[in-house]
Amino acid sequence: MDMKSNLRNRLVMAAAMLAVGATLAQAHQEASDAASGTNPLADKVRAANSRFLDIKAATAEGYAPIPCASGITGGAMGIHYVNGQYLKDDKIDIARPEAVMYEPMADGKLTLVAVEYITSKGPASLDGQLFNFNSAPNRYGLGEFYELHVWAWKGNPTGTFADMNPKVSCEHAMAPSQ
Fold first, then answer.
1. Is 143 exposed, middle or buried (0-12, 13-18, 19+ CB in 10 A)?
2. Is 136 helix (H, G, I), strand (E, B) or coil?
């Protein structure tokens, strides 16, 4: 093999290795984005509701807390701050979620992790994402309803729209007597 052919082969191999590396890096980034909750609807929800990073905004808009919700098999939803007026009107508005969800932290602060949209009219969807159906009776004492969690501030390894998040805990929620 002459020197030109050898150099050409090396360049072709180097280019092929760079292409494979770039493809693997892109696949890793896409997997990372999926795990961190990055998707178009989550981005829209975050943009429309980031005012709730400050819990005072939620209470000023009429949201009130209900106890921290943990999953039977682990994970949690956190403390829901629910707006009773929005819950009653059955409207789906990206900037007016029926519930805003906070994770209680060890220092006593609450960190915004997600929002939840709820309606009794269905089947329901938001930007093409179908809501989950909850039959009655249920643990919330509500009639049949449709709901959609959007984990826009804390990635959920089980999915951006899953009910429970294994990365969220109620461990630091205050007991009712506190």
1. exposed
2. coil
Region class of 33: left (phi > 0), else alpha (psi between -120 and 50), else beta: alpha
Q: Copy the structure tokens of residue 157.
A: 């390894």
What DSSP character marks residue 10? H
Residues 106-126 have pLDDT tens digits of 999 999 999 999 999 999 999
Please return the burial class of 145, using the count of CB atoms within 10 Å of its CB with bins 0-12, 13-18 and 19+. buried
Q: What is the pLDDT of residues 14-57, one digit of tens each?
A: 333 433 333 333 333 334 344 444 789 999 999 999 999 999 99
Q: For 79, what's the count of Cα atoms within 13 Å in the CB-facing half-sphere?
A: 24
Instruction: Evaluate the CA torsion angle 170, 171, 175, 178 in order and state its sign.
Output: negative
What DSSP string describes 15-67? HHHHHHHHHHHHHHHHHHHHHHT-SHHHHHHHHHHGGGGSHHHHHHTTEEEEE
Q: What is the pLDDT of residues 130-176, one digit of tens each?
A: 999 999 988 778 889 999 999 999 999 999 999 999 999 999 987 55
- Whole-structure pTM over 0.70, yes or no? yes
User: Are 41 and 129 a contacting pair, CB within 8 Å?
Assistant: yes
3-state secondary structure of 125: strand
The answer to whether the beta carbons of residues 102 and 112 sit under 8 Å apart is: yes
